[in-house]
C-alpha cells in the first residue's frame, strides 16, 4: 500500500482499499456506487459472495420485467395511435360526405348544429384516451368553421 506525505492515510488522502480488519471501501462519489465492507475475521466470504450473486440475479429479473413491461406499453401506445389515425381519417371522410350532402341539399342550418357537436364529442373521446388535441392539432383546418 502506498502512503503519502500527508500523514500516511492512503494515497493522496483517500481511504485505503485494504486495512488490517479486512476489505474497506472508498467514499463513493456517485449514487450508483455500492459500498461494501467485508471483514474476513468475522464473516464467511463465501456467504457474502452467495448473497451478492443472489442480489445480482434478483436485479436481472427486475430489469427483465421492466423491459417486457416497457415493450408491452410501447406496443399498446402504437396501436392506440393507429386507432386514432384511422378514426381521424373516418371523421374526415364523413365530414366530407356530410358537407357534400349539405351543399347538394342547399341548407346550412344542419351544418351549424352538427359541427360543434361533433367537435365536442371528439374532444371528449380524446380526453378519455389521454391524447387531447391529437386529431385537432394534426389537422388545423378541421376546427376552422
TrEMBL record:
<feature type="region of interest" description="Disordered">
    <location>
        <begin position="1"/>
        <end position="31"/>
    </location>
</feature>
<keyword id="KW-0333">Golgi apparatus</keyword>
<dbReference type="GO" id="GO:0015031">
    <property type="term" value="P:protein transport"/>
</dbReference>
<dbReference type="GO" id="GO:0005789">
    <property type="term" value="C:endoplasmic reticulum membrane"/>
</dbReference>
<protein>
    <recommendedName>
        <fullName>t-SNARE coiled-coil homology domain-containing protein</fullName>
    </recommendedName>
</protein>
<keyword id="KW-0175">Coiled coil</keyword>
<keyword id="KW-0472">Membrane</keyword>
<feature type="domain" description="T-SNARE coiled-coil homology">
    <location>
        <begin position="39"/>
        <end position="101"/>
    </location>
</feature>
<keyword id="KW-1133">Transmembrane helix</keyword>
<comment type="function">
    <text>Required for vesicular transport from the ER to the Golgi complex. Functions as a SNARE associated with ER-derived vesicles.</text>
</comment>
<keyword id="KW-0256">Endoplasmic reticulum</keyword>
<keyword id="KW-0813">Transport</keyword>
<feature type="coiled-coil region">
    <location>
        <begin position="42"/>
        <end position="69"/>
    </location>
</feature>
<comment type="similarity">
    <text>Belongs to the BET1 family.</text>
</comment>
<dbReference type="GO" id="GO:0000139">
    <property type="term" value="C:Golgi membrane"/>
</dbReference>
<dbReference type="InterPro" id="IPR000727">
    <property type="entry name" value="T_SNARE_dom"/>
</dbReference>
<feature type="compositionally biased region" description="Gly residues">
    <location>
        <begin position="1"/>
        <end position="12"/>
    </location>
</feature>
<keyword id="KW-0653">Protein transport</keyword>
<keyword id="KW-0812">Transmembrane</keyword>
Amino acid at each position: 500500500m502506498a502512503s503519502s506525505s500527508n500523514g500516511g492515510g492512503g494515497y493522496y488522502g483517500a481511504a485505503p482499499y485494504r486495512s488490517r480488519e479486512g476489505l474497506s471501501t472508498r467514499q463513493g462519489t456517485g449514487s450508483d456506487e455500492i459500498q461494501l465492507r467485508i471483514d474476513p475475521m468475522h464473516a464467511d466470504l463465501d456467504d457474502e459472495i452467495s448473497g451478492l450473486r443472489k442480489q445480482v440475479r434478483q436485479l436481472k429479473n427486475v430489469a427483465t420485467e421492466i423491459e417486457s413491461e416497457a415493450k408491452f406499453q410501447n406496443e399498446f401506445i402504437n396501436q392506440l395511435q393507429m386507432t386514432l389515425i384511422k378514426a381521424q381519417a373516418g371523421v374526415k371522410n364523413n365530414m366530407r360526405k356530410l358537407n357534400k350532402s349539405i351543399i347538394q341539399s342547399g341548407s346550412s342550418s344542419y351544418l351549424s348544429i352538427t359541427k360543434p357537436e361533433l367537435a365536442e364529442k371528439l374532444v371528449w373521446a380524446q380526453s378519455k384516451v389521454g391524447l387531447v388535441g391529437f386529431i385537432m392539432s394534426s389537422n388545423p383546418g378541421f376546427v376552422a368553421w
